[in-house]
Predict the structure.
Amino acid sequence: MILIPCIHCGPRNASEFAYLGELGRQPDPNTTTPPEWRRYLYTKANTAGWTVERWVHRAGCGRFFTVERNTLDNKIRTARPPDAQIRLIQQAGRADPKADA
Amino acid sequence: MTTMLRAAGSAARLGPQPGEVIDRAHRFTFRWNGAETAAYAGDTIISALAAAGERVFSRSFKYHRPRGLLTASFIDPGCLVQVGKEPNVRGAHRRVEAGMAVRAQNVWPSLRYDVMALNQAMTRMLPPGFYYKTFMAPRALWPAYQMVLRRFAPGGVVTNTRTDAYFDKRYAHPDVLIAGGGPAGMAAAVAAADEGAKVLLVEEEYELGGHLRWGTEADLATLRELRDAVAANERVEIMTNSTVAARYDGNWVAVAQRNLRHVDERLIKARAKVLVVAPGLIERPYVFAGNDKPGVMLSTAVRRLINLYAVKPGDRAVVFTANEAGDAAIADLERAGVQIARVVDARRGGNLVRARGRGGVQEVHLADGARVEADLLVTAVGWTAPTTLLTMAGGHPVYNHRAARFFPSEPPEDVLATGGIVGDGTLDQLLAHARAVGAEAARRASIRARNLRAGNPTAPSVDQRSPDSSSSSIPDLPIDDSPALFRSATHGIVDYSEDVSSKDIFSAVREGYDSIELAKRYTTATMGPAQGKLEMVNAIAVHAEAAGRSIAETGSTTWRPPYAPVTLGALAGRAFEPVSVSPMQPWHERHDARALIAGHWIRPDHYGDAAAEVRNVRRNVGIIDVTPLGKFDLRGPDVPRLLNHLYVNKWSKLAIGSVRYGVMCAPDGVVLDDGVTGRLGEDRYVMTTTSSGPETVWRWIEEALQTEHPEWRVHVIPVTAAYASMNVAGPNSRELMCRVVADVDLDPEAFPYMRVRNGRIAGVDGCFMWRIGFTGELSYELHVPAAYGLHVWETLLDVGRDLHIGPFGIEAQRIMRLEKGHFIVGQDTDALTGAFAAGLAPLVKLDKEDFIGKPELIWQEGHEDILHLVALQPVDSSVVPPEGSQIIEGRRRIVGRITSSRMSPTLGRSICLGFVAPHLKEPGAIVTVRLPDGGHVPATVMEHHAHFDPEGVRLRG
């Protein structure tokens, strides 16, 4: 079983986490078309190599985060907070209370 | 049954041996196929039987050939026996116990006269793939084939009445886990522990020591020193009679532990920082005609028998030797008084042709034409390196033709190998290598520990001392030359467990299975209980020979977990599954509630008569424990935005003191969960979900707040178990509430339907209650601090006695909600049911800015080609079509299904909810329901989902 580096708790057994799939870019719900939306929902690249994916520390702190993992050897090179949190921090120019709680 | 007693000291038992493991002071008897047999403590089942003069222990898998001792170890393929109710016991490994009832497996009617042995005569008719090819067509005969083939199925007797077994699990976090407790494993363990590592040393056999145990006086002295050093080191945990079964990513290592007194087998899930693989070498059999006859043994088998168990393996032996192990076996045999009829030395060109004899070896034919009478044929042709754990770590074994065996390739950083698997050399060279590996393992483990701590952003502090970065040098082990001896000029058994001969592999190659991976699957060679450790290399060599290739070109097949079979009991073990019960559970148990298991909750299904519970609620008043309802305390100014995002309906204008029903959909527009949410104060809301939904809904809430809208000011606390919840339902419920509620005006004008109030119930502060219910009656859902749940429950029952209060369970509630036509997410909807199909059109507000599932719901709206949820009543009111019954048109066209059905005690007739095709959804339509028994019943589509009180007069009262 691989270890997933939680951004809050550090490396923990993968069984403590839920895998939420590849990081996708959600189309604008107000202008999207059915093919585009369904491609976003169901079509995954399933890359043999480095992928960017989302995990949640379901049985731990509950944090959602983004991980870069190589599907060939399960090596993980980065783990970072969700993009929306990073954007919020950058916009505000200050640490978000949620990000460093 | 015979009462003849075969004595432990008789037949083949030798005098005391220097390294023997039997305790001659402790003698007892056990039963072998019903016959009393003597044994010493420390004997294996098979060593005791061999000492008593037994030679045949089982019949083979396919041809039912008699089989005896081959390896005298855990993997011995002919020594699987039934012990009491336990099948497939490794008889050459398991220690015999007083009174044990041991039987031969795979024999009928008896070991001696086995009817299936006729298969031997049919060998020519049982080529590989025989069963696949023969029992294919016609399909109609499959059940008959199955009955015949089951007779031939090998293995022991599995019983489902076994209650004496106990299995459990453990988690371990050793710095260094060492697989193999031979000299190398022991030396590595001590070296790693001396460097400060916490070591787990796992050995398959009952004692540490490996081949030193049957070695010279000097070997035994070294063994004592190593054992003392391991035992004296408190950082080493020793686990004997245990197997490292598998290695997975991140050194997640499965260990099957069997050396516990009251546990049959324990599965250890170890996260090892470094794994050291030191399994030693496994002696490889030689392929020739008759190589599976009882009396043909490996050199290590006779050395174990003589030195560990003081058993004389035969009277007159031919020894075929190609190495020092064979030479040492000759010395052991001579010392044991076995007459050496002939030594055939492969290094001088000698070879075997075949072994002959009925029921066991009687004569050995040699390549030089000689025919030698013998009852024992010992072979020592070479070794197999069990690289299983290393290949699980990503390594590929590499064939070395000089040594005629595979060697491990470079394993990953966190795995090291030592011992015979790596190379040969003297014992001193081996120990030096192992010590260096142990020290290096400890060093790498400390680096990994440091990196793991550094990877934890919230760990209190990280040790700043940098660990020793200088990698200690591990010496190379020499590799001895060994002749490439795999098969003689004749054909013999390659896989003893699966009864696959070299001839079978040749014929598989002729049929086109020219890849070893395919030939393995086709012939099933290496797929038996020995897991390839005994037969893999011979299978590869024979395949290479048949295909005209080299062994290096042929390559190795993949070694998969487990290294050695693990019982299903250990894998199932003890489940670490939490169970939840409400604070009222003691009351339910005292009142004979029938338990319903719903996810991790145990809750009352009914208290004896669900229909009577329904009638009491409709007539008087009832209470139900609904504690498992998911509950979330939501606080903050942005809660309405969150609710608008999650639910399909609108939440911006929910007044303080009001509750609203809401439905959540997934991004694909499928109904995910439903429940009510109430506003208890300016910035305080409580959300409820279905009883099975809180985990999912919590994740959705957190996902929205963490990944999409971190700017929203909302704080969420899951409070499912913090409140005990109960619903008071029935015409008398207001009267009952008046008796227990303080501070709340219960007048229907002041506290109408779909409102929430904070208040004190039965003297308990901090409660809230809302006027909703699933039953369609005037009802109040009470949420009280969990610690007071039982008190409030009992108080309600006490003060409501004259109002005819009674408890009701889930079944009664399900009947009443069906009478009211309320659907249950997951029961009446499935993973394809969109909000419009579920009849939720009035709820879905597509003019909201955005919410989960909105795009799909826009496209769903107005689509008519979907199934619609409707209420149905069978025309024959006494027929309750089982849930899942199909609704059909014509002979077999499916146009819908029944999702819920019950007999309604209120209406005295059967009622249903179900999905129908659009052309059948209009009220009054008659549909045909097909029952599981093939019968058909007509049913009428109703106007409303509610069969009872469709206007909702009762609940608004």
Q: What stands out?
A: Chain A has a mean pLDDT of 88.
